Amino acid sequence: MNAAIRKLAVAAMVLMLALMANSTYLQAFRSNELNSRNDNARVRDSQFSIDRGPILIGNMPIASSKPVDDRFKYQRTYSNGPVYAPVTGYYSYIFGRAGIELNQNSELNGSDPSLAFRRIIDVISNRPQQGASVSLTLNAPAQLAAYKAMGNKKGAVVAIEPKTGKILALVTTPSYDPNQLAGHDLDKVAADWKKLGADPDKPTTNRAVRETYPPGSTFKLVTAAAALSSGKYTPETKTNSPAELPLPQTTTPLVNENRQNCGGSNTATLTIALRYSCNTAFGSVGLDIGADALREQAAKFGFGERQLPELSGVASAFPGDPNPPQTAQSAIGQFDVRATPLQMAMVAAGIANKGEVMKPYLVQNVKTANLKTVSETKPESLHQAITPEVAAQLTGMMVDVVKNGTGKKGQIDGIDVAGKTGTAQTSPERPPFAWFTAFAPANDPQIAVAVMIESANVARNDIAGGALAAPVSKAVMEAVLKR
Amino acid sequence: MSIASTSVIQIIPRTRRGVELFLLLIAVGISVGAYVNIGITAQGGVPASTGLYAAGIGLLALVAHLALRFRAPYADPVILPCAVLLNGLGVAMIHRLDLGLTSVGKTKGVPFAPQQITWTAVGVVLFVAVIIIIRDHRRLQAFTYTLGLVGLVLLVLPLVPGLGVNIHGASIWIRVAGMSFQPGEFAKVCLVIFFAGYLVVKRDVLTLAGRRFLGLDLPRARDLGPILVAWLVSLGVLVFESDLGSSLLFFGLFLFLLYVATERAGWLIIGGLLFAGGAFFAFQTIGHVHKRITDWLDPLAIEGGQIAGGMMGQAWGGILGRGLGQGQPYRTLFSNSDMIISSMAEELGLTGLIAILLVYTLIIERGLRTALGCRDIFGKLIATGLAMSFSLQVFVIVGGVTGLIPLTGLATPFMTLGGTSLVANWAIIALLLRISDQARRPQTPAAPVSDETIAMAVQKQ
């Protein structure tokens, strides 16, 4: 009998070892997976109760945690909430995080591997876990100017420093106050959230980086870049620019917005065509160089890649396999061309930076609570979109647009502004999108801007679009340049 | 130390009561330490009731110790401290959960800890009673069939209309005078004694070689009767009480004892197949069992489910744990009953959980050691049965809580909130210790030699 009992003793040991092995798997190897689940209330609670690091612009906190005497210990507070909401995002106990609060979460709450050493010190000295601070590249005057200039218009503004890719301003309107969502009165938070969700203007939508729109005539910059890069065109090359351009495979012709030819000529030069934003000229240029050349040029400016992961940015797109009429439409930024305002700012910034598109970034550095730098973002080249020569030609053409063409409203006294207007229509029922993308000063670019106004209640032409969007661009540029 | 002196030590039977007392001090110390720790982290200071708690648990441990010292001096010295440690930690955790549940406004029935302490006292009284009344476990053999009947009655008691209650899908509870009991916990003890008594008589018949097949000695068809009866009863438990855990426990115990009595692995094979068939049948036909199994296959699918809550608690605890009073185990459903082991794992970490499992292992292996050393077959079988009942029960409930196997509502021995299980476990420990006293006692009646005398004897050489 003892032999059997001994075997049972071994079996009992095996059962226990199985329990230990399973628990080890669960607690040592699967813990990260389980701790990162959204429905994990423990993690949610403890993270919400952490002395979270601030989000800074320079030395000015735009989001910070202040000690309070309730269940969560710290209240996340956003100063100038609606202005910075598309960047900071929010941190809600019930609805989670967005924006920098989401994408830099591990740094802000101090759990990032790069902060491991700091965390050990905290544990040893019995201090509560303290988050790192995240410094942004934003330029506060530019951001405020952009928000103010947008007023109650619905749309987005993105400003980039062309040489580095730093985001100087990133605004979407209408906005919301993240303080509403960060509150500790959870019933009120839920009610406010419901109200925001029900708002037809979708204030929590990040129009600058998370939504794509038809870029309209601003896309003609990409078409012009492709044409100049092909070697077949110079700014003085004559184009086919009648009032109506008959398209192959269809009876619907491509028309200029004013139903006339281009600046009084049926063979306007590329410069003139850009000045008056002639659809027929760029349609024929697009047909001439082909969809592939357009797509390649767009990709070199950053189309097809997700930009600005800090804000979960989405990719802009050029249609995959358009037929000739669709190619002509695409060449003027219609059909299925979709771009984020950020992407159009990158196009302007690329031209401004001698053809080199810098990778846009928003986080300047991360520092521990005692100001030790954990990481510092270095400017990074994304693509050489065009040669410096082509960039110089395009710059000249864009300066002409603002000086003599559709973009006059973007002019700034004493500074050469290079820009391009756009008005994109999706359907006859809905108002067109008004665009303006520009950089300045033209000879030494400090800032590139894209403005998109979603429902512009104006005439459907470029001058109107420019009239609406260009002043916003001007305000942002002045905030940066005139200091 | 010379070889001679070693051999001297080996032949002098020792009571080891001093060792037990020392281990008890540690067990009580850890329990009180846990209580103080919880006070500091969750209440902001050493609780005023610390003295009372320490005195209470210390007194209970001392009473149990004295009962052994006077009535079972050769009993195993490790089992009692292990039980006291588990019980003390369990009470501390229940107290901690009282605080946690109150803090989130779930005050129904709170506080549970005083209740559990009262039941611990009842358990220790029963422990002492068993030690005093049952002077020789062999006398129990006379009650084989009586206990078998009692066990069966206890088993079916939850099915009696008006008496049994269905809690969370399983009908393994009865309600008398406003209090709930799990009669299965006592049925387990009665049935172990019944199985043992029955097998002592029938083992020769059952051992007769039947047919050899694939290297296994299979029993004769007509000897299959008892195992079929046990199978049907356990299947009955499964079908009518919807409890896979109890069913597995009863059938498993019978199988193990049958195996030990006959030393024929064939029984295990046949039994295993029968159980697998029964479990599959239950999975197909019984909604509650089916749900338990689908919950097990995808525990995280149910937001706020108890297994998901427990697993997240354990993950949150990680390797070193959140620290007593510093986790949020009260978030898990049934955090102080079914899921208490995940509460432990959350606050004490993987490290603490493994320590607790090792304490269980110690009790189990010490119990089996007792079975090895026992000189009569009846005692061997009872000790094996009781030790394996611990093993199976811990495996079924801890495995269920940690997601290794489907969860069933068995009690975590000595820890789960609830009187029946706690009291029954104290009785089981008492029985085990009674048998171990017999097993370790010198064969020729001799005066017990205390540790001190041996130490002196060793020093003299």
TrEMBL record, chain A:
Region Disordered, annotated ranges: 232-260
Domain Penicillin binding protein A dimerisation: 52-134
Signal sequence residues: 1-28
Domain of life where this protein originates: Bacteria
One example GO MF annotation: penicillin binding
Domain Penicillin-binding protein transpeptidase residues, every copy: 155-478
InterPro entries with a match to the protein in the record: Beta-lactam/transpept (IPR050515), Beta-lactam/transpept-like (IPR012338), PBP_dimer_sf (IPR036138), PBPA_dimer (IPR054120), PCN-bd_Tpept (IPR001460)
Keywords: Signal
A Gene Ontology cellular-component term: plasma membrane
Biased composition (Polar residues): 236-260
Electron transport as UniProt keyword: no
UniProt key word Signal: yes
GO BP, sorted A to Z: cell wall organization
The name this protein goes by in its record: Penicillin-binding protein 2
Originating species: Kribbella antibiotica
Automatic annotation (TrEMBL), chain B:
Membrane topology, from the record: Multi-pass membrane protein
GO CC, any one term: plasma membrane
Transmembrane spans: 21-40, 46-66, 78-97, 117-134, 146-174, 186-201, 221-238, 244-261, 268-287, 339-360, 381-405, 411-433
Localization, UniProt: Membrane
InterPro entries the UniProt entry points to: FtsW/RodA
Entry keyword Membrane: yes
Predominant subcellular localization, coarse grouping: membrane
Keywords: Cell shape, Membrane, Transmembrane, Transmembrane helix
One GO MF term attached to the UniProt entry: lipid-linked peptidoglycan transporter activity
One GO BP: cell division
Pfam families (UniProt xref): FTSW_RODA_SPOVE
Keyword hit for Cell inner membrane: no
Superkingdom field: Bacteria
Protein name in the entry: FtsW/RodA/SpoVE family cell cycle protein
